[in-house]
Prior knowledge:
This protein has 147 residues and is mainly α. The chain folds into 2 domains: 7-109, no CATH class; 119-147, no CATH class. It has helices at 7-36, 44-78, 85-109, and strands at 123-125, 132-134. A hairpin with a 6-residue loop joins strand 1 (123-125) and strand 2 (132-134). The radius of gyration is 32 Å and the shape is elongated. The two termini are 55 Å apart.
Amino acid sequence: MKRSISEGRKTTYYIGTGIMVLGGLSFLSVFLSSALNFGDFSNFSGNAKSGMLRALLGMALLMIGAVVRNIGASGLAGSGVVLDPERAREDLEPYSRMAGGMVKDALDEAEENLNGNKEKVIMIKCQSCSKLNEEDSRFCQECGKRL
C-alpha cells in the first residue's frame, strides 16, 4: 500500500485548482464589465453576447476544474472513474491512514490502550443474586450477602 500521494496526482490536483481559478475569474469578469459599462447601451448586443460567452465558459471551467481536482485528490479509481475496488482502496489509503491517525491521536489523548495489554481483573460472582463483585470484596455490592 502506498503511504503518500504520487507527484502525478498532486500535479493533477493543482492543475484542476488552476482551471477552477481561471473559470472563477472568467465568470466574475462578467459582473465587473457590466458594472464598468453600466448605462452604456452603444453596443448592447455585442456586450451581452460577450458576457454570456464568458459566463458560460467560466462555469464550464469551474466544473471541469472540480472534476480534474477530484481525480487528482482521490485518484482514478478512488474518484469512481475506474471501477476497481482494490485500486480504489490503494488510491484512498493515504486519507484512510490519516483518518486512522486522527482517531489514534484522540484515543491517546483519552489515554485508551488499543494494544490489548489490558490489566486482567478477577471478579467474584455472588451465589445469591449473580452480581459480579471485585476480587477483594467480602460482601456482595448488590444484595449484601457474604461472598
